[in-house]
Each structure stands twice: as structure tokens, then as C-alpha cells.
Write a structure and sequence with these properties.
Keywords: Membrane, Transmembrane, Transmembrane helix. By secondary structure, the chain is mostly helical. Helix content is about 75%, strand content about 5%. The chain has a two-stranded antiparallel sheet with strand order 1-2.
Length: about 140
């Protein structure tokens, strides 16, 4: 357990500018997805500020821990993380799924949370890739 904690602490100890980019990108991404989900009547957070708790306080640290790993590994670990988040969100009713939404119609209501977790697990490898590109473009170097 000590090795794991040391590994996590090492991975999240990053340049503050990189952390700021992660927070900005994920915050805007979260606001956009919450808006899109509400507009398309798929799903939304119960409260707008959940974008902060979900995307910044939950997803950014996980992204930092997963950065540098192969795409498929980030996706696999991301699937576990998002599965837990989706399950909790709908179990505790902090997320709202619109009845008979397009995903329910296409995949069946029983597969809704699974579909959401499969989709949102892509955030980790794609987010790490995108933030890395933004950081390199601004500061002229790859993030460590």
C-alpha cells in the first residue's frame, strides 16, 4: 500500500501550470457535456457545481495518475473509475437521466449507465492527450 501511495503522490506532484490547464480543460469540458446532456435530454447533474466535484476533484487526479500509461491501460482504469462514478451518481440521485432518452431508446434503459461509463472512460486518455498538447503548445515542451 505504501508503494501505491508513493506512486500516486509522485504522479500528482506536477507543474502548477499543468494542473491549471487540467482544471480549466476539464471544467469547461464538464460544463459543455452537462449542457449538452440537458439540451439533448439525455442526462444532467442535479446541481451545476457537481461539474467541479466530478470533473476537477475526481477526474483530474485520476487523469494525473494515469498519464503516461498506454491508451488502453488509461481506458481500462478509467472504465473502473467512471463505472463507480456513474453507479454512485444514479444510485444517490445526484445525476438525472431523462426518461426514454435517446440512449435508452437505442441501448435499452438497463444499459444506460454502462453506456455512459464506456463513453466517459475515454475522457482519461483523450484528456491526457489534449492537455499534453495544450501544455506543449503554450510552454514549448511536453509535460513531464
Amino acid at each position: 500500500m505504501k508503494e501505491f501511495i508513493e506512486y500516486v503522490l509522485h504522479k500528482v506532484n506536477v507543474d502548477k501550470r499543468l494542473l491549471l490547464i487540467y482544471c480549466l480543460v476539464y471544467f469547461l469540458w464538464g460544463l459543455g457535456m452537462n449542457w449538452f446532456g440537458a439540451q439533448m435530454e439525455i442526462a444532467k447533474f442535479t446541481y451545476w457545481w457537481q461539474v467541479i466535484t466530478c470533473y476537477i476533484l475526481y477526474m483530474v487526479p485520476i487523469s494525473l495518475v494515469l498519464r503516461g500509461l498506454p491508451f488502453h491501460t488509461q481506458y481500462a482504469y478509467g472504465l473502473i473509475a467512471m463505472g463507480l462514478l456513474e453507479f454512485g451518481g444514479y444510485a444517490f440521485q445526484t445525476s438525472y437521466a431523462y426518461p426514454n432518452n435517446i440512449l435508452d431508446q437505442f441501448f435499452n434503459v438497463r444499459n444506460f449507465s454502462l453506456g455512459m461509463a464506456l463513453f466517459f472512460a475515454l475522457y482519461f486518455p483523450l484528456g491526457n492527450w489534449g492537455v499534453g498538447r495544450i501544455y506543449a503548445a503554450i510552454f514549448g515542451k511536453a509535460h513531464p
